[in-house]
């Protein structure tokens, strides 16, 4: 019998609403939900392939436990017994930091991944935390922490109302957006142009987004911070600075102007390969627009000056009066945010509260660089214990982190490893225990993280579209049991994990004079919670305590889970609104334009003014039908343009003797790979491009379709030594490489990257 069910798509950051067709308990079709308050029926190829992703025959159905060196199917009880027996002795003998936790990108796409890993980390007491953020977005977190006092307070462009949008290193027509949750990002950009607005794209590749732009600037990779600094310099130099409504909430304007004095358009022109007048035009256009927003993403983050580039994005929004105003860049207000506190000074944001053991990398937002994971396992030092046990949740760093070969060997040397993953992939194949979550149709969904980055305030929740199959365990229960097994409470009722969080949260809220439940009995409040499970009770609690909540009766008509369930297509909470100064948590209570760590890093950027890189540099790229290494095992999402080829400009191809389709060898500091050449003028001369997430050719995996066309691991070209020093983010773009046809010995050698 056929029926339909609603589901929020978890396959990228756009969070589109889907209408699933279900036949005999199986998803057989997916289309956009036209009544969804946010996505309004938009769907991309990933969402359309939801059924194929959900029913992939290579998804693990039962836990695996290593016995006599081989992974064998086991019961859930046997699996969690093995977890407790493997992790606890490491903690007891070597201390909590000898247990590492690795969190992959999919964690922010599931309810379970948002609710339980923080409890695991806190329960273990480990500082050995590594996440996908240091391969992607940590520079933005660090710059936001330094500017605004909160690493998660990230302004997003007001796409639906802006008159001028400047995109730096972003390709939302392929990615659907990142750190900017916007269903139908392509449609929103076309609407911008249709209403007479201007789109400018800065990218070394002529991407689909760049082809839509009014102006495309093919900047030299890795020089985004120099370009943005020169634009800011121009605003000061030509008296174009106008802080607008946020002027009372800004500190350090004069100091900023002095710090940027050396970054003239003429000074940056040679390094950026952009003429000075074009730089000035960009600044003037930004200042003259009725409203404008600057938005930078992965291309500007995964470079040597990623934090400075991320900082300068928001500096430009401040200097042009576009921060915190409609049509500019605003701070979303999610329904599950904490109760807003009164404006005023906060505790600020600190970097380097501890350091990695081997190379002494400073922590950022409680995390160590993923690039340091291998050395933290395989390198002994006199200071502290190596990582001897690892908990990996939805993570495949063998493909996503630099020098996967070294990490591959390091994982094999661990005393114990547990992986929560639906696949036996390049990383989970090393685990002693693999705990497979169910397919997404069998899980509930609410976007905690992405709603804090959404271009419109809204709230949506979907219960499982399909009941759990026999033998499956809910992902929320898997992670709750993992918390118990890893922290010495193995065998306790997993519901106790949620009860503990509810009790602590309500107790804290009752003691907070700014909370709507101040002075009330936490136990009585807990008894009022609705929902059919621990995770739903926690969601109800967060909604009721949040900025739109009913405050457990204090605000009749406010949000509750019951009200949200009565609106299956979601509840629209309105456009983004100015919020300053309330969300600022800096010590001054203001936007601190020139924080000390930023000022201390500017000499490094100043030194880059003299750079004139020769030879070839490598950049990555994204495909619309892919998300990192997740989806290469789904036939409907591979093939066509989603191929692992090396883009080479015709001029470079001619000089190197490379023909279209010919195998070429690419060599970097971390190793070499061989991939087919794709000769195209979509990349600027001097730049080659390989996509991310490929390399599915290691033994012991169970992803049959991916293995038929494995591609190559672009991150094997990196040795992990290049990091943005402020954030610890890996430098994945603008790195020097050598390229040569496989049949020939001639190579082109680049200069050193500084």
Describe the structure.
- By secondary structure, the protein is an alpha/beta fold.
- The protein folds into five domains: 2-54, Phosphorylase Kinase, domain 1 (2-Layer Sandwich), CATH 3.30.200; 64-126 and 352-445 and 461-492, Rossmann fold; 138-336 and 589-605, Dimethylsulfoxide Reductase, domain 2, CATH 3.40.228; 493-569, no CATH class; 613-741, Barwin-like endoglucanases (Beta Barrel).
- Helix content is 30%, strand content 15%.
- The chain contains 27 helices and 26 strands.
- It has a seven-stranded mixed β-sheet with strand order 5-4-17-16-15-6-7, with helices on one face. A six-stranded mixed beta barrel has the order 21-25-22-24-23-26.
- Helix 3 packs parallel to helix 20 (475-486), helix 10 packs antiparallel against helix 12 (265-272) and helix 21 runs parallel beside helix 23.
- It starts with a strand and ends in a 13-residue tail after the last strand.
- The model is unreliable at 745-754 (pLDDT under 50).
- Residues 2-58 form the 4Fe-4S Mo/W bis-MGD-type domain.
- Keywords: 4Fe-4S, Iron, Iron-sulfur, Metal-binding, Oxidoreductase.
- It comes from Streptomyces pilosus.
């Amino acid at each position: 019998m056929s029926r339909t069910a609603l589901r929020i798509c978890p396959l990228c950051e756009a969070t589109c609403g889907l209408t699933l067709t279900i036949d005999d308990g199986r998803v057989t079709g997916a289309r956009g939900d036209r009544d969804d308050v946010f996505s309004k029926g938009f769907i991309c190829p990933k969402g359309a392939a939801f059924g194929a992703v959900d029913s992939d025959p290579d998804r693990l159905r039962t836990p695996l436990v290593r016995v006599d060196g081989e992974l064998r199917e086991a019961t859930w009880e046997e699996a969690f017994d093995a977890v407790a027996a493997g992790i606890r002795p490491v903690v007891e003998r070597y201390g909590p930091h000898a247990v590492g936790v690795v969190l992959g990108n999919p964690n922010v796409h599931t309810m379970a991944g948002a609710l339980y890993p923080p409890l695991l980390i806190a329960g273990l007491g480990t500082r050995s935390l590594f996440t996908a953020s240091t391969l992607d977005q940590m520079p933005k977190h660090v710059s936001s922490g330094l500017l605004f006092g909160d690493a998660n307070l990230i302004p997003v462009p007001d796409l639906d109302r802006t008159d001028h949008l400047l995109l730096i290193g972003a390709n939302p027509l392929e990615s659907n957006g990142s750190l900017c949750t916007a269903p139908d990002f392509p449609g929103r950009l076309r609407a911008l142009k249709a209403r007479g607005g201007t789109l400018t794209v800065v990218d070394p590749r002529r991407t689909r987004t760049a082809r839509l732009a009014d102006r495309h600037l093919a900047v030299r990779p890795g020089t985004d911070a120099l370009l943005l600094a020169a634009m800011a310099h121009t605003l000061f130099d030509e008296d174009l600075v106008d802080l607008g409504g946020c002027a009372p909430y800004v500190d350090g304007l004069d100091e900023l102007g002095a710090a940027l004095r050396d970054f003239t358009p003429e000074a940056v022109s040679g390094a950026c390969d952009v003429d000075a007048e074009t730089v000035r035009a960009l600044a003037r256009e930004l200042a003259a627009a009725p409203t404008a927003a600057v938005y930078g993403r992965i291309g500007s983050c995964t470079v040597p000056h990623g934090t400075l580039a991320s900082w300068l994005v928001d500096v430009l929004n401040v200097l042009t009066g576009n921060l915190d105003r409609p049509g500019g860049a605003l701070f979303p207000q999610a329904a599950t945010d904490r109760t807003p506190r009164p404006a005023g000074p906060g505790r600020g944001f600190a970097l380097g509260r501890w350091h990695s053991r081997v190379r002494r990398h400073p922590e950022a937002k409680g995390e160590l660089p993923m690039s340091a994971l291998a050395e933290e396992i395989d390198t002994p030092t006199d200071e502290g214990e190596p990582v001897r046990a690892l908990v990996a949740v939805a993570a495949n760093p063998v493909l996503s982190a630099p020098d996967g070969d070294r990490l591959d060997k390091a994982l094999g040397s661990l005393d114990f490893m547990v992986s929560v993953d639906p696949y036996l992939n390049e990383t989970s194949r090393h685990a002693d225990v693999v705990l497979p979550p169910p397919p997404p149709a069998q899980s509930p969904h609410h976007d905690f993280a992405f709603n804090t980055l959404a271009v419109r305030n809204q709230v949506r929740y979907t219960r499982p579209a399909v009941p759990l199959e026999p033998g499956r365990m809910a992902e929320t229960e898997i992670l709750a049991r993992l918390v118990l097994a890893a922290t010495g409470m193995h065998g306790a009722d997993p519901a106790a994990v949620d009860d503990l969080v509810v009790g602590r949260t309500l107790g804290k809220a009752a003691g907070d004079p700014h909370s709507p439940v101040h002075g009330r009995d936490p136990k009585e409040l807990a008894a009022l919670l609705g929902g059919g499970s621990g995770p739903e009770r926690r969601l109800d609690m967060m909604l009721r305590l949040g900025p739109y909540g009913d405050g457990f009766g204090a605000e009749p008509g406010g949000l509750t889970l019951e009200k949200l369930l009565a609106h299956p297509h979601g509840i629209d909470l309105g456009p983004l609104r100015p919020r300053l100064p309330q969300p600022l948590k800096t010590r001054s209570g203001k936007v601190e334009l020139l924080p000390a760590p930023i000022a201390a890093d500017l000499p490094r950027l100043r030194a880059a003014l003299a750079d004139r890189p020769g030879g070839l540099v490598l950049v990555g790229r994204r495909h619309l039908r892919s998300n990192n290494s997740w989806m290469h095992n789904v036939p409907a999402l591979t093939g066509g343009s989603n191929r692992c080829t090396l883009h080479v400009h015709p001029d470079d191809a001619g000089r190197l003797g490379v023909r279209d389709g010919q195998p070429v060898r690419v060599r970097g500091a971390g190793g070499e790979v061989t991939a087919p050449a794709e000769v195209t003028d979509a990349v600027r001369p001097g730049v080659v491009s390989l996509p991310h997430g490929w390399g599915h050719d290691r033994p012991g995996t169970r992803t049959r379709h991916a293995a038929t066309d494995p591609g190559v691991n672009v991150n094997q070209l990196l040795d992990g030594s290049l990091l943005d020093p402020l954030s610890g983010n890996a430098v994945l773009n603008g790195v020097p490489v050598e390229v040569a046809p496989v049949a020939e010995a001639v190579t082109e050698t680049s200069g050193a990257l500084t």
